[in-house]
Specification:
By secondary structure, the protein is mainly α. The chain has 27 helices and five strands. α12 packs antiparallel against α13. The two termini are 46 Å apart.
Length: 528
Amino acid sequence: MTISLSLAAQDAERALAAGSTDPYDLLVAGLGRVDAGDEAGGDALLDRAHLAAPGDPGILTGVAIRRRQQGRLSEAVRLCDAAIAIAPDYPDAWLERGAILAAGGSSTAARDSFARAAALAPGNAAAHAGVASQAARDGDTASAIEAANRALALDPANLVAVSALGSALLETGDPAGALAAVQPVVETAQTGQQRSVAANTLGRIFEKLGRPDEAYRAFSLSKADFAAVNAPQDAGMPGHTAFVEAISGALATDGVTPPAAAAVPDRTPARAGRHLFLIGYPRSGTTLVENILASLPGVAALEEWPTFRDADEAFLTGDRAAIANGLQSFAQLDGESVCELQAAYWAVARSGGIAPASATFVDMDPLKATRLPFIARMFPDARVLVMRRDPRDVVWSCFRTLFAMTSGTLEYVTLERAARHYDAMMTLTDRALDRLPVAAHVVRYESVVRDFETETRALCAFAGLDWSEDVRRFDMTAKRRGVSTASAGQVRQGLYDGSGQWRPYAAYFEPVLPILDPWIERFGYDPA
C-alpha cells in the first residue's frame, strides 16, 4: 500500500468508526482494505459507496480502479466512461481509463487517455508517466524520453517513468544511461507492481551490458514482486499447471475423445470461410506467425481472445474431477447443442473485431491447446498450426518477460515453475494431437527466422493460403494492427533470431534440465 493511500485509508476508517456514511470515506476505506488484503471487506465498502453515489465521477473512478485490479477491464472502462460523461474534464477518470486500457493491451487508446489526463492536470506525474510508458512500448523513444523526464521532474521516484526512460534509452543504444537512470531508483523502491516493472527493465539493461548474473537477480526480483502483488487474486485457486494437467489427465481416459464421426460441421452463417488455430507456448513465435499470416489479403487474426468462453464456462470449470466430467459431458452433446456453441464462438470472435465475412480467420492463443477437445468436435475443418521453439529459450523468455496478470503468467515466476508448466502443456498438446482428429502442422521458430520463404510457403500450403511477398511485411502489419502481447517490440523490428538466449544463464538451468531434457530431445534440439 502506498503511504498516501495508507494514511487516507486510516483517516477514512476512523470516520466510519465515528458513524460516517460519506461515500468518499467508504471508497477510500474500501480501497485501503483491499490493498491490505481484506478483499471481501473492501469490496463491501466499495459497493456501499457506489450505491450511495452512483453518479459521482470520483466514486465511479474509484470503483473502476478495483475492477481493473480484479481483471474486469470492460466493466472498468465503462465506469470511467460514465465518469467522463458526467465530468469530461475530470483528470482522474482519464488517468484510470489509460491504466485500464494499458492493462488490456490497447496501447494507442491508453496513450490518448493518459495524454488527456496530462493536458488536464499538467502537474500530475502519473499522467506523464503513463504517456511515457505507452510511447516506450510503441517504440516512440523520443516521446517516451520527453514524457518520462516531465514525470520525473515532478516525482523523481516515479517507477513507471523510470522504467519508460530506461526502456527508451536502451532502445536508442544507451544502456549505460539507462542503467544510471533505473538502478538507483529500483534499489530504494518498495515492493510492488511498479517496482516489478522497473526491476524487469533493469534486468534487460544488465542483459544488454553482458552482465547475466546481475540480470538474473533483477529478473528474479521482478518476478518475486509480481508474485507477491498478485498472490491474493490467486489465493485458493489450483493454478494453471493443475488446470492443464486436469485436461491432459481426462484426455488419457475413455469418453472424452469422441471419434471423427462425432464432429459437427460448422454451418454458422456468420463465420469465416477458412479457420486456423495457432497454438504452441508463450514466447514460442506465435505472435510472429500470426502477423505473417495477417499480412496476406483476406486474413483476419485475433490474438489471445477468449473465443471458447461459453464452452469454457459450461465444461472447463472446477477441480480435476469436475473438468473430467465436463469434458465427458461435452463429448456426449448432441449436434444441435454443438451448433449452439459454434454460434457462441463466432459471436465472441465478432466482439473482438473479426468481420463475419472474413475469408480466413486465425485464432491465435499459445495456450489454446487446452481447447483442442473443443476444436476437434466443433470445428472439424479447422487447421491447427503448432509453434515449436527450443524449450530452454521458451522457458527463459517467459521468466524474463513481464506479462499482464493471468493464472498462466503466475506460472513463470521461477524457472522451475515455468519448466513444470511447459512440461504439462507439451504433454497435453502431444496427447491431444495423438488422440483427437485434428489436422495439425508444426512450425519451428528457428526455421522461420533462418529460412523464411521455405517455411512460410509450407505453412501457407498447409493453411490453404496463397503465398505472396506480402508475408515479408509482417512488421508493418504488426505496427498497423497493434500487438497486445509481450512480443510487440520484437515483431515491430522485423525478422529477429532469438535463439540461444538461455545460454548465458546455463548455470541457472541446471536444476530444471531434468524437466526439459525429454522435450529438448523429442523436438530435436542440441542438448549442449
